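Good morning,

Attaching, inline, the backbone tokens for the sequence recovery test we're adding to the shared suite. The designed sequence is right after.
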């Protein structure tokens, strides 16, 4: 098969890390794989190019310019691929409308986050239009699928759930570090719950005065987070590391992972990477997270937005080494058994064959 994966850009994020792991597996399965970035490239685009992949740039500069739909359709038809697989709302919408023009190959769109509503009516209509034109709609979790069907965005019969997997060999288990060294990985966006974690950190420090929190990632909330750190007088206990190349190294030097999302979380690749690294995980019971983490078995789940519950779980795992080690070992096994990139690749290829066989 000649496959084209379409995405808004290839900076740093969960979808981008998924493609970085997944595309080589698809190529190793004997398929020709190319990538189209609708807006711009980014760090992961450069890594893919170094790995021998062709990355096309459409150079789009507007979300709502119909002319770009025509340009996208022409570009994709020119590439002469067998199947187009789009990722994320922006790419889904544009490829969905581009597929309305003659000669467009079969289209699969993929939703990586929950549908939460509260968006412009024109986006709702655009999402419905894209879903109606796609041959299949992939969702990274059952929670994501439910959110789309309950909102009437996509019909259930078109949906296939293919959960994300990671390249587990990139995350070797090391001896557990000091659990007072806490790490959280994710874009600095409102739905990721960083403010809740800062509130929790203030409570944690009342009992664990030498705890230290590192945020990995960047985004629109950075300045607000910096302000809140100062307001809570956490400057000596919280560091914003920004975007790093060596996420694995950062995880291996930490002792506890916290994933405090408050909404929209489709599955949570960052939590998979932390579990694979042998870290005990505290996470919000948000979206598809409970499909990864079984409370009390492979991690600890707390209600989204509850800083006191979050602090209590962190303090408990800092204090109870035996429980932390038990959860960490079970979490690693969970990823090994259910969330590898090999499994994701197999399930995707099955969907591709289903679409192309008619």
């Amino acid at each position: 098969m000649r496959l084209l994966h379409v995405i808004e850009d290839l900076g740093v994020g969960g979808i981008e890390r998924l493609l970085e792991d997944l595309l080589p597996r698809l190529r190793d399965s004997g398929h020709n794989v190319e990538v189209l970035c609708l807006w711009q490239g980014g760090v992961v685009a450069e890594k893919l190019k170094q790995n021998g992949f062709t990355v096309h740039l459409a150079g789009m500069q507007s979300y709502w310019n119909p002319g770009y739909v025509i340009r996208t359709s022409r570009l994709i038809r020119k590439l002469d691929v067998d199947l187009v697989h789009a990722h994320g709302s922006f790419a889904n919408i544009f490829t969905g409308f581009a597929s309305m023009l003659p000669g467009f190959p079969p289209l699969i769109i993929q939703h990586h986050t929950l549908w939460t509503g509260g968006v412009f009516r024109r986006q709702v209509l655009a999402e419905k239009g894209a879903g109606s034109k796609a041959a299949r709609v992939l969702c990274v979790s059952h929670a994501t699928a439910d959110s789309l069907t309950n909102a009437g965005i996509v019909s259930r019969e078109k949906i296939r759930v293919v959960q994300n997997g990671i390249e587990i060999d990139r995350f070797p288990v090391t001896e557990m570090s000091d659990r007072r060294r806490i790490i959280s990985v994710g874009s600095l966006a409102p739905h990721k719950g960083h403010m809740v974690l800062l509130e929790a950190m203030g409570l944690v420090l009342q009992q664990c005065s030498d705890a230290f929190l590192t945020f990995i990632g960047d985004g629109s909330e950075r300045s607000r987070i910096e302000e809140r750190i100062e307001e809570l007088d956490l400057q000596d206990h919280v560091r914003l590391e920004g975007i790093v190349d060596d996420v694995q190294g950062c995880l291996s030097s930490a002792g506890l992972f916290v994933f405090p999302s408050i909404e929209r979380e489709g599955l949570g690749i960052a939590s998979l990477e932390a579990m694979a690294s042998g870290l005990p995980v505290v996470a919000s019971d948000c979206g598809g997270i409970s499909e990864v983490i079984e409370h009390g078995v492979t991690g600890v789940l707390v209600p989204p937005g509850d800083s006191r519950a979050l602090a209590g779980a962190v303090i408990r795992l800092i204090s109870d080494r035996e429980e932390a080690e038990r959860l960490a070992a079970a979490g690693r096994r969970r990823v090994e058994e259910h969330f590898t990139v090999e499994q994701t690749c197999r399930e995707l290829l099955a969907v591709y064959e289903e679409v192309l066989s008619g």
